[in-house]
Amino acid sequence: MRIGLFGGTFDPIHWGHLRSAEEVCEALSLDRILFIPASIPPHKKDQTTAPARDRLNMVRLAVAKNPRFSVSTVEIRRRGVSYSIDTLRYFANKSKGRDSYYFILGIDAFRDIASWKNFKQLFSFCHFVVTSRPGDGHTNPLAGAPVAVRKLFCYDFKEKIYRHRSGTYLYFVKLTDIAISASQIRKRVGAGKSIRYLLPWEVEAYIKKRNLYRDREEER
Ligand code: ATP
Asked: For labelling, which of 8, 37, 46, 55 has a CA lying 20 to 30 Å from the CA of 62?
């Protein structure tokens, strides 16, 4: 199977995330996309996030109707700070070469990858899929990436793709621009504004029921 691994805080999950997964799935003919909510995202350690259980429940509600989409609790079960290197190692060990994995991340996150734990090793575990973000016109996944990352890849002119020395590929997928962000949603909830049509209604109802994002100092 060709499996996409889509990690994130998903605080909360919204149409931008879901459409992004759908388009990557189609562009790379993936069989499944696994959404992997982080327990504690390393770059948001000092920020308050909704409880991991709530973020997980929201992702479950959002993907329930798509047979290609499912949720992995690997990072939430592991607890503590969620490092992608541990997650990729987990999937590589689990599959023992039967499946191929595609780690999906936005170009904004990819540009920051040199600050991730053991970043040089990440690319040996699976293929990477860098996706566009609204307002960023680049179509080269390495555009704006630090030299330490750029020099790990060489361009394969025959295949027209970047390749890591371990043999994995670095893809780029240009997405339909959907300028929705989780922080915008949290801010709107905090200000008592509507979030309808920014995310699935089941997730909106869950936020209301659990009274999430109502009293967040840093969002004001
Ligand atoms: P925040 O606004 O809280 O920083 P975020 O949505 O950017 O949230 P995550 O939930 O961690 O953060 O996002 C998971 C992944 O989804 C990241 O790789 C991010 O680049 C990508 N992503 C988020 N929003 C969109 C969007 N509107 N379109 C495409 N990709 C997105």
From this structure: 46
